[in-house]
Amino acid sequence: MVRISGSPAPQGLSNSRLGLLHALLHQYGPPRWSRYVREHWSGQRLVIAVPWIWLFLFFIVPFLIVFKISFSEIRLAMPPYAPLFEWLEEGRRLVTTLDLSNYAFVISDGLYVSTFLYSLKIAAVSTVLCLLVGYPMAYGIARAAPTTRSLLLMLIILPFWTSFLLRVYAWMGLLKSDGVINNVLLSLGLIDMPLTLLYTDLAVYIGIVYSYLPFMILPLYANLEKHDITLLEAAADLGARPFKSFFLITLPLSVPGIVAGCLLVFIPAVGEFVIPSLLGRADQLMIGRILSDEFFANRDWPVASAVAIVMLIALLLPIMIFQRYQRRELEAAKR
Amino acid sequence: MAEKTIDRSQEYVRIESVTKRFGDFVAVDNVSLNIYKGEIFCLLGGSGCGKTTLLRMLAGFEAPTSGRILIDGQDMASTPPYERPVNMMFQSYALFPHMSVERNVAFGLEQEGLTKAEVSNRVADMLDIVKLGEFARRKPHQLSGGQRQRVALARALVKRPKILLLDEPLGALDKKLREHTQFELINLQERLGVTFVVVTHDQEEAMTLATRIGVMNKGQIVQVGTPTDIYEFPNSRFVADFIGSVNIFEGQLIEDEPGHVRIRCPELDTTVFVSHGISSAPDAKVSVAIRPEKIEMTRGAPEGAENLTRGIVKEIAYMGDMSVYLVKLDSGRMVRVTIPNVERHADERIVWDEAVHLSWHASSPVVLSQ
């Protein structure tokens, strides 16, 4: 046993290496937290600090950089924008070029506005479709026997085990004019001409609903699974038919789950880049595509940044609603 | 409780040899039972005895495996819960968390398609009855346990059901509130004239509330009777033991006359003289049940006692209103005796390790053959 402090080391060890270690420890003492750290840093704060630092470094800082670029002028240089502050005449004059024209351009140019509105429409329709498909599935899983439940949940998550890109390409194979769906319909004699499925809004809806369905189902399931079945019994006892009980009891109580699921689908769907690029129309781009084109094809970083900022602000609203609901649900759960 | 005049000529609820199986498990085993109009009928039993399953079959949440349930003469077999003339107060209350007190109570009436004015009138009346008028706009989570219980009661009663089913209605309340609420429930029942069927595991609750009690064990009804019947004249060891506390001695019938019997109990060092006849085979093995409060405990031997034995006080539990004594007989058997604490001062009370005489009246023991 090594005694760290207090009584001297046992005699036999005093000349050995352990004795030296002991002497050092005795002299300097073990490292101690300063009084401030002990009084003001709780374990809780340290745990919370980790995600805060993460978010600061990888969200706030990049956001501020993009925010700054959005006010710059485009310049054919590397990086391709003018600095906001410049020292001219060998440091004797500070010049600021705060350029709001990027925003004016983004807002006034019909292309950006219509693309943005189109993205919102695609995302909104996809979200509603996801809800209509996902709610019955989530409900079914929540009401299934516990053993079946975990199997069904695994099946919901199963598609994530293959690459997202691969799954979208697979949809191209299904939807194209000589694809699986058209071939089957033709051979059954249901249609004479191949249907135009690929490169349509429909294909984008299918792709988004297919890809984002788990994000709708999982929060809905988490909510529905907690519901107290005796509430439905009470409703039946009071004279409500099952159909009515669903609309009066289950549906209102699952609103937090619906909101969470919808936002988890809607927010990424607005900025979706891959699915509309691969499955969507060529004449109507989504905002994610515009963003990437401005950045990489046009190398117009200031305008791209302005697009990104406008999009972010427009999406911040639903996130804030989401957080309000989440907080409300948390408070309700505490009681 | 006060005796009420209940019309026993016609049953209101008729349970005809109802059995309910869940897989191999028989939850309710061939139960037949009549419940009369205006009664408070208590189903009393331990957990897993089938009392809640029976109640749920009355509500329509479970269908009997076999047998029939008739309510007011109508077979309920094909009537779903939402069409039955019964309402239930759930053990968990099952209040709708997203609705105010008012909306909870109105829920059942809205399903009946009543006019808005009538719904709000009846809801307001009912909330007055349960003294919750000022809490009408609160949500359930803003109420105390006792208030939630009253909302649940109001929500079920506002439908004016033929029968109100109550599943452990007072189980979630603390003792003081429970006693108070018991009497409120009885008052309410008398005022509204609704037939109550109450499920409880708490015998005190059953004794206070019930006009009649049905004691259940392992899916079967073992005895039906008034609280007095059940307590003073239990028909089996199970009932005697389940309701209140009791001293049960094994014995053998040695004298069997129409007017009295004599039973030899080895544990008692004496024979037990019982002043009423029983119908049993001679020399049959029987159990003698004596309630602790029916045993008299004295220092000296009382004169002319028909049943007398001796022992030494081993344990005393002071309960305030009474004291429970555990007396060890010469045979080693422990006997439970309760003595009301009439005097405030403890000078005269029997203390630990005192030698005492135990005696009881010849009419006190109950002879049980099963």
Question: How many domain units of chain B?
Answer: 2
Helix content of chain B: 10-25%
β-strand amount of chain A: under 5%
Q: At CATH's second level, what is the architecture of the largest domain in chain B?
A: 3-Layer(aba) Sandwich
Structural class of chain A: mainly alpha
The string of secondary-structure elements of chain B, in order, is: EEEHEEEHHHEHEHEEHHEEEEEEEEEE
Helix-strand category of chain B: alpha+beta
Largest sheet of chain A: 2 strands, antiparallel
Unreliable residue runs of chain A: 1-14
CATH class of the largest domain in chain B: Alpha Beta
Distance between the termini of chain B: 30 Å
Care to count the β-strands of chain B? 20
Gyration radius of chain B (Cα, Å) is 25 Å
CATH architecture of the largest domain in chain A: Orthogonal Bundle
Q: State the total count of DSSP E strands of chain A.
A: 2
- Spell out the CATH superfamily of the largest domain in chain B: P-loop containing nucleotide triphosphate hydrolases
How many domains make up the coordinates of chain A?
2
Fold-level CATH name of the largest domain in chain A: MetI-like fold
The CATH C-level name of the largest domain in chain A is Mainly Alpha
Q: Beta-strand level of the residues of chain B, as a percent range?
A: 35-45%
Structure, described:
The complex is a heterodimer of chains A (335) and B (370). Chain A has 335 residues and is mainly alpha-helical. Helix content of chain A is 69%, strand content 2%. In chain A, strands 1-2 form a two-stranded antiparallel sheet. In chain A, α3 packs antiparallel against α15 and α14 (287-297) packs across α15 (301-334). Chain B has 370 residues and is an alpha+beta fold. Chain B has 2 domains: 11-241, P-loop containing nucleotide triphosphate hydrolases (Rossmann fold, 3-Layer(aba) Sandwich); 245-368, Beta Barrel (OB fold (Dihydrolipoamide Acetyltransferase, E2P)), CATH 2.40.50.100. In chain B, the strands form 4 sheets. Chain B has a 6-stranded mixed beta sheet, sandwiched between helices. In chain B, 38% of the residues are buried. The model of chain B has no long low-confidence stretch (mean pLDDT 90). The interface between A and B is medium-sized, with 19 and 26 residues.
